[in-house]
Every structure is written in structure tokens, then in C-alpha cells.
Design goal:
Largest sheet: 2 strands, antiparallel
Strand order of the largest sheet: 1-2
Number of domains: 1
Strand content: under 5%
């Protein structure tokens, strides 16, 4: 790409649109994978959800464990297909905030009970990737939240501007 192409692309909002597109595809693929990995092993996922000790009613616990993987999969699929993109990104952002808070609280509880340094704490958080180091998981979730926010605020900027005029 030469300099005039880059300038032209930049002036039309192209870089932000390209970043939002990459974020949309990446986020969609990640959540399709994570949703399917949980949905294919529902008993294991239910056990992991139970370990957070946040849901005490058995019907609510079972409903979340059964519904959440398919919601993640569906949101990821919508992102890949380019349908209801902002709604799917918003749902994923809200879920990521909740997931990240739960992981952080669980890590802090483990920190209180043991003598490990914070970033050495490792457990299966229920994300579908097996055991993870807590600092790595928090960083990954921060990247995924950034991608969700990029999709919400950067994607399709040109189309929104054209629709207003």
C-alpha cells in the first residue's frame, strides 16, 4: 500500500473499520470455540460454575450452565456473519465484565487461603481453555473486552455518518 492509499484509507475511517472487522472476526471465533467447548461437556461446565459458589438455587445453576455456552456460541456466530453486530458485542462485553469479576474474586479467595503470589494462581476458570494462570486470563479478558468495545464504537463509522445526512 502506498502513502496516498494509506492517507485515503485513514481519511475515510478505514483503519478503525479494519480494526473493528478484525476484532469482530477474532471475538466471534473465540466465543464460538469457547461456547462449543462448554456445550459439548455440560457436566464438567456445571461443576466449574458450581465452584464459583455464586448461584445457590439448583434450577438457576443448571439453567446458567445449560444456556450460557449456547449464548456465547450464538453471539460469536452473529459476529462472524455480521448480523446484529453491536447487540452481540454488547452482550459479550457485559458477559466479559461479569466473567472477569468472577475470576478476579475467585483468584483473590485462593490468594487469601494460600501463600502463592497472585500471578502464580492457576485454576480452571470455566472459559473452555482448561487451567489458566490468573494474570494471563485477566489479560486475555481485557483484550476481548477491548475488541468488544471496538466493535461497539469503531465499526461501521462511515455507514452511521452517511445515514445521518
Amino acid at each position: 500500500m502506498n502513502r496516498t492509499d494509506a492517507t485515503s484509507l485513514s481519511s475515510r475511517g478505514g483503519f478503525s473499520d479494519i480494526f473493528a472487522l478484525i476484532a469482530r472476526w477474532s471475538l466471534g471465533a473465540v466465543f464460538i470455540y469457547m461456547g462449543l467447548s462448554k456445550a459439548m461437556h455440560p457436566v464438567e461446565f456445571l461443576k466449574l460454575v458450581r465452584q464459583y459458589d455464586a448461584l445457590h438455587h439448583v434450577l438457576l445453576l443448571n439453567s446458567v450452565a445449560a444456556f450460557l455456552p449456547w449464548l456465547e456460541f450464538f453471539c460469536g456466530l452473529l459476529l462472524l456473519l455480521g448480523l446484529a453486530v453491536r447487540g452481540a458485542a454488547l452482550l459479550l462485553l457485559l458477559m466479559l465484565v461479569l466473567f472477569t469479576s468472577a475470576v478476579l474474586l475467585r483468584a483473590l479467595a485462593i490468594l487469601d487461603s494460600g501463600g502463592l503470589p497472585f500471578c502464580a494462581i492457576k485454576f480452571d476458570c470455566g472459559c473452555g481453555a482448561g487451567e489458566v494462570l490468573v494474570c494471563r486470563k485477566l489479560g486475555e479478558n481485557l483484550v476481548l473486552m477491548t475488541f468488544s468495545a471496538a466493535i461497539l464504537f469503531l465499526g461501521n463509522r462511515r455507514r452511521r455518518i452517511k445515514n445521518r445526512t
